[in-house]
Design brief:
about 140 residues, alpha+beta, Alpha-Beta Plaits, five-stranded mixed sheet, 5 helices, binds flavin mononucleotide, BLUF_domain, blue light photoreceptor activity, FAD binding
């Protein structure tokens, strides 16, 4: 495989089920820690993306050079804080969708009064495996 392929822009989308060993009340703290650390690590790796948390499910998008996505994803796959990981999509892309975010987050911080946001988040959860392209557009709309 030519070197340029490993440097070329790709986008990865996966889902997984959370498997925290901490108490329910501590889960948001744990996730905030994951997001903060991911933000820093991704920034150094030229990775951008978003993490969603809904119905005990993580939905994550990572975009950047293929080699960097692979390195990050290897670590993510080994992380015991989630399981039943499903790779939904991994594809070369022309441009980034989440170019302004090293790791955006949408989940429990959503204000319950933001009914539309919650509805859209639920829809992403429902369609992410059957229609990832539509799910991506929906996710992008959520972090405007
Ligand atoms: C749902 C979830 C999403 C994660 N996303 C990222 C990520 O985008 N980037 C990253 O570097 N680590 C991410 N991690 C953390 C990695 O799995 C791993 O814990 C971390 O990279 C290990 O870093 P360390 O070797 O410096 O301790 C994620 C973990 C979980 C559970």
């Amino acid at each position: 495989m030519p070197e340029s392929h490993y440097n070329s822009l790709h986008r990865l989308l996966y889902t997984s089920k959370s498997r925290f060993s901490c108490s329910e009340a501590h889960v948001p703290v744990e996730i905030k820690g994951i997001v903060a650390k991911s933000f820093e690590k991704n920034r150094h790796r030229d990775l951008t993306g978003v993490l969603l948390f809904i119905n005990d499910t993580f939905i994550q998008v990572l975009e950047g050079p293929l080699s960097e996505i692979e390195t990050a994803f290897e670590a993510i796959c080994c992380d015991m804080r989630h399981g039943n990981l499903k790779l939904v999509d991994m594809t070369p892309v022309e441009t980034r969708i989440f170019d302004e975010w090293s790791m955006a987050f949408v989940g429990f911080d959503v204000d319950p009064s933001h009914l539309r946001t919650n509805r859209d988040l639920q829809e992403v959860y429902t369609i992410v495996e059957s229609d990832p392209e539509k799910a991506l557009r929906q996710i992008r709309g959520l972090i405007n």
